[in-house]
Amino acid sequence: LIENRKADHIRICLTKDVQARRITTGLEDVYLIHRALPEMSFEDVDTSASLFGHRLSAPVVIEAMTGGTLEAERINRVLAQAAEHFRIAMGVGSQRAALERRELEHTFRVARDAAPNAFLIGNIGLSQLLKKGWEDKVKRAVEMIEADALAIHLNALQEAIQPEGDTNFKEGLERIKEVASNLQIPIIVKETGAGIAYEEAKLLETAKVNGIDVGGAGGTSWAAVESYRERRESAKVRELGETFWDWGIPTAVTTIEVLKSTNLTVIASGGIRTGIDVAKVIALGAEAAGLAWPLLKPAVEGYLKDAIRGLIEELRVSMFLTGSKTVKELEHKPIVITGKTAQWLRARGFNPEEYAIR
Ligand SMILES: Cc1cc2nc3c(=O)[nH]c(=O)nc-3n(C[C@H](O)[C@H](O)[C@H](O)COP(=O)(O)O)c2cc1C
After folding, report:
1. Taking the mean position of all CA atoms in its chain, how far away is CA 235?
2. Rounded Cα gap, residues 215 and 247, in angstroms
3. What distance in Å separates the CA atoms of residue 177 and residue 159, rounded to the nearest whole number?
4. Closest-lying ligand 1 atom to the alpha carbon of residue 190
5. 219 CB under 6 A from ligand 1?
6. Which of 16, 90, 192, 291 has most ligand 1 atoms within 8 Å of CB, for mutation?
7. Greatest pairwise CA separation for the chain in angstroms
8. N or C: which end of the chain has fewer CB within 10 A?
9. Under DSSP, is residue 230 helix (H, G, I), strand (E, B) or coil?
């Protein structure tokens, strides 16, 4: 049952080490330049931002995590209350369970009830959209939470490792195009920890999607989550999960690849862990940064607001130390990109030095 799978995912993410091991986001290679003379007062910092034209108090997205179970409903309520309180955006987890069983709709709907004004993002897997009845699923997913945008998630890595995975992604681009031409709200195509290369980003732009949430490598590893899930049942799944644990395109790299090859709105996610990371991806050109795993335990254990307050405070300090009064100013601050990330970008035809002086 999908509900069991979802409950497993939450339990594993709360109790096991599911973070990347030997791959990093590359954000450790990305440096903002310290301004010893910021020529402003700390109180002048304004972190407000906009995402698809919707005003936020900070460029932060609570990434898609859950729904479908009672525990998930509780988590969605807490996440949504925080999204409403801080005026940040939030994605619900894959709505598949409720699309298959209407009686589970309330476990997602709770997000809209708790966050009547927040920018809420619906979530559906591309593999679900490749089955019959997809038009109806899209419509219901949006209506269920009165979504402000719909994320179509790509998780080929996870599906390939799950024994019961949906591994048919044939004609996925065509389907994304059909969804995008049918829907009035923004469509975001979202990876889940392996990143999106510029080749796909360009294709997605031709399919007329509105945004890409890069979901890069260096944070939560879905290969890791699946390897824990099947630990008892199957040695093969465990091995596959171990082998692919660190698969993917680092978050800093995928963020730049997508930004430099398209005009799409970019949400940078995958291993974003501090307000400094948020500041870095904004300076690279992302419209917002998304976090999933770091918010799960705070949501379950009751200190989510403190966690988000801390994150926004770190962003505020980063803005002060780079002399950025506004998020718009931060977008134009110089960045130095070194090491592995610079090498990777150069190998792919991008110029890491172009951010250094501006
Ligand atoms: C417990 C958990 C459940 C998730 N479920 C979904 C999901 O249903 N749909 C989706 O698109 N992404 C899902 N994700 C992926 C996240 O949205 C995000 O892309 C990924 O975890 C990388 O961010 P992080 O390193 O901050 O966790 C989930 C992540 C976590 C930690």
Report:
1. 30
2. 12
3. 22
4. 11
5. yes
6. 192
7. 60
8. C
9. coil
Q: Virtual CA dihedral for 11, 13, 15, 19, nearest 10 degrees?
A: 160
Nearest CA, atom 10, ligand 1: 64
Does the pTM surpass 0.90? The reply is: yes
192 Cβ closer than 6 Å to some ligand 1 atom: yes
* Residue 93 CB–ligand 1 contact under 6 Å: yes
Q: What is the pLDDT along the chain (358 residues), one digit of tens a residue?
A: 777 888 999 999 999 999 999 999 999 999 999 999 999 999 999 999 999 999 999 999 999 999 999 999 999 999 999 999 999 999 999 999 999 999 999 999 999 999 999 999 999 999 999 999 999 999 999 999 999 999 999 999 999 998 889 999 999 999 999 999 999 999 999 999 999 999 999 999 999 999 999 999 999 999 999 999 866 667 888 999 999 999 999 999 999 999 999 999 999 999 999 999 999 999 999 999 999 999 999 999 999 999 999 999 999 999 999 999 999 999 999 999 999 999 999 999 999 999 999 8
Mutate to test the pocket of ligand 1, among 2, 129, 220, 272 (most ligand atoms within 8 A of CB): 220
Q: How far apart, in whole angstroms, are the C-alpha atoms of residue 168 and residue 130? A: 8
CA distances from 212 to 55, 88, 120 (A): 19, 18, 16
d(CA 84, CA 249): 32
